[in-house]
TrEMBL record:
Keywords: Aminotransferase, Pyridoxal phosphate, Transferase
Residue numbers carrying N6-(pyridoxal phosphate)lysine: K201
Active site: K201 (proton acceptor)
GO biological process: polysaccharide biosynthetic process
Protein name: Aminotransferase
Xref: InterPro entries: DegT/StrS_aminotransferase, PyrdxlP-dep_Trfase, PyrdxlP-dep_Trfase_major, PyrdxlP-dep_Trfase_small
Length: 403
């Protein structure tokens, strides 16, 4: 993954493009194993739920120490199913963050409830627990924190608010499988926890997939029923659910990948630590804000997101793109300012930290296979984009001379 001596010429180092994420490189490592399990499922012709899904559910439950895990068709559906399992609907409010992927809030809308946005903590980009506490009303039915970019929301104060008001917590852990808070895994930090297996998440399938974990047997049973049209068997429908199941092929592939997840997470964490060293060595550190980690959190770095202040973010983005370094803005427009949520009546300036994060955040490559050489290329490009005079070369590993 990152050999000490690299068979690259110095010229190649300075020019090779670095993608934001490279799924092909990871697949190459596991291709034989993945092809074998796909072939096995094809041979069985058992595609919907079944043994592969049950096994993978058990593995995820074990992985995050949850009692139950229920696979479904996507992370979005996981959120919808969790809300439905709590009977949340019209007239109900769910408190969440405006600085997240769209699905977090759209699911609340989808079940007929009202998303209530509150601002984020500028240091972690996650829900500000004090703002959540202040937003609770008699209509509040749940709190939905997002573990954004792979860092868990500050769950202790959120739970204090939840318990005081008799509210459940639904974790949106779509970006956070393998993350922890206070020594416990994302997946058991809420009443229910929703994962996504979208290909670019830390555990990504060969298409869409999702899962809900919970310790509550009644909620688990309800989720299992809701994902099959509310069917309790023999075409007896006790309620109207969805058709939202995890495919056996996805489960079989994800099961192969889950065995490597801890190693891949460690590689991402290692890359983040190396960015810190390289930023310091290159002088870049003074010109950006390094992603902070909450002391209780084990960050799984689904994204490595820095802040570029003073209105320079978009110029840095353009410069990195011109230098063929992959980067992206998550998320350029906070949800309270999206057209489809105009009906909520939120105003520009209402959540200043979410708006500032949208204007300043920049995601850099962090994928497990990135390696030191490509990271140094990212940092040199970043230094160039930021007009940082580099006092000394930032190379930290020996490079074999081109023959
Ligand atoms: C990806 C994501 C989702 C939705 O997951 P899908 O599997 O794409 O439906 C929900 N919330 C967050 C924060 C996400 O990043």
């Amino acid at each position: 993954m990152s050999p000490d001596i690299l068979p690259l010429s110095a010229a190649a180092l300075t020019t090779a493009p670095v993608p934001l994420i490279d799924l092909v490189e990871q697949y190459d490592e596991i291709a034989d194993e993945v092809r074998a399990v796909v072939d096995r499922v094809l041979t069985s012709q058992k595609f919907i739920l079944g043994e592969d899904v049950a096994q993978f559910e058990a593995q995820v439950a074990t992985y995050c120490d949850a009692r139950h895990a229920v696979g479904c068709a996507s992370g979005t559906d996981a959120l919808v199913l969790a809300l439905m399992a709590l009977d949340i609907g019209p007239g109900d409010e769910v408190i969440t963050t405006p600085y997240t992927f769209f699905a977090t809030a759209s699911c609340i809308h989808r079940v007929g409830a009202t998303p209530v946005f509150v601002d984020i903590d500028p240091v972690t980009f996650n829900l500000d627990p004090a703002a959540v506490d202040a937003a609770v009303t008699s209509k509040t039915r749940a709190i939905m924190p997002v573990h954004l970019f792979g860092q868990c929301a500050d769950m202790d104060p959120l739970w204090r608010t939840a318990v005081r008001n008799g509210l459940p917590i639904i974790e949106d852990a779509a970006q956070a499988i393998g993350s922890s808070y206070g020594g416990r895994q994302a997946g058991v930090l809420g009443t229910m926890c929703c994962f996504s297996f979208f290909p670019t998440k830390n555990l990504g399938g060969a298409g869409d997939g999702g899962m809900v974990t919970t310790d509550d047997p009644e909620l688990a049973a309800r989720l299992k029923r809701l994902r099959v049209h509310g069917d309790v068997g023999r075409y007896e429908h006790v309620e109207v659910g969805l058709n939202s199941r995890l495919d056996a092929i996805q489960a079989a592939i994800l099961s192969v990948k889950l065995r490597r997840l801890s190693d891949w997470t460690a590689a991402r964490q290692n890359n983040a630590a190396r960015y810190k060293k390289l930023f310091d060595a290159s002088g870049v550190s003074e010109h950006l804000v390094f992603p902070a980690t909450h002391p209780a959190c084990g960050h799984s770095y689904n994204q490595f997101v820095v802040r570029i202040e003073d209105g320079r973010r978009d110029d840095v983005l353009k410069s990195l793109q011109a230098q063929q370094v992959g980067c992206a803005v998550y998320y350029p427009k906070p949800l309270h300012l999206q057209k489809c949520f105009e009906y909520l009546g939120c105003k520009q300036g209402q959540f200043p930290e979410a708006e500032r994060a949208s204007a300043e955040s920049l995601a850099l490559p962090i994928y497990a296979e990135l390696g030191a050489i490509r990271q140094e290329r990212v940092v040199r490009s970043l230094a160039h984009a930021l007009d940082v005079e580099q006092a000394s070369p930032v190379y930290s590993i020996p490079v074999r001379k081109a023959a």
